[in-house]
Design brief:
By secondary structure, this protein is of the alpha+beta class. The chain contains six helices and four strands, in the order αααβαββαβα. It has helices spanning 2-18, 24-44, 50-74, 92-98, 127-137, 156-163, and strands spanning 78-85, 102-110, 113-123, 142-146. Strands 2-3-1-4 form a four-stranded antiparallel sheet. One of its GO terms (cellular component) is plasma membrane. It is found in: Cell membrane. The chain crosses the membrane at residues 24-44, 50-70.
């Protein structure tokens, strides 16, 4: 149980660190290391029982899985999606904008002609909703997403935060 808590905290702390939460990650790491020291001392004092070692290892594996699940539910940060459409007259940009997404569109030349390219910045907690809208309107769309490390300027930063703020 102790290792389960420790590894869950460790996974979340690592993800917070990767996303640049410079104040929260160190605070969480203090709790994490306290749990680790207590848990490790319990196991080291009882190495004669193989079930303690198995429980420690099982807690580690389950903790990693739960930590990933928690981080996925928190959906911290933003994603940048590039959507490439074969139909340059698609109404998808208008639909996305009416659903609160910021969309920058441009035309590009692909192997088979002109394509409509959409760049969309959105909070990660809106990622699945974005995919659902795109797949419903343009099932043949090519979608690439990535997590931007730094965002500055434009209307995106203020409006995107405000637009998708959870009540």
């Amino acid at each position: 149980m102790v290792n389960f808590v420790y590894i869950t905290l460790n996974t979340i702390r690592f993800m917070l660190t990767m996303k640049g939460y410079r104040n929260l990650a160190p605070l969480l790491s203090m709790v994490e290391i306290t749990v680790y020291v207590v848990g490790l001392s319990l196991v080291l004092n009882r190495l004669d029982n193989v079930l303690n070692i198995i429980a420690y290892a099982l807690g580690y594996g389950v903790g990693v899985r739960v930590g990933i699940w928690v981080e996925d539910k928190l959906a911290l940060g933003y994603i940048m999606a590039t959507v490439i459409l074969p139909d340059t007259t698609s109404q998808l940009p208008t639909l996305l904008r009416s659903n609160g997404f910021g969309v920058t569109q441009s035309e590009a030349q692909g192997l088979e002609g002109t394509r409509l390219v959409l760049d969309i910045l959105t909070p990660r907690n809106q990622e699945r909703r974005l995919y659902a809208i795109v797949n419903e309107v343009a099932p043949k769309a090519f979608i690439i997403t990535y997590e931007p490390k730094y965002i500055s300027g434009g209307f995106w930063v203020k409006r995107v935060r405000r637009r998708f703020r959870q009540p």
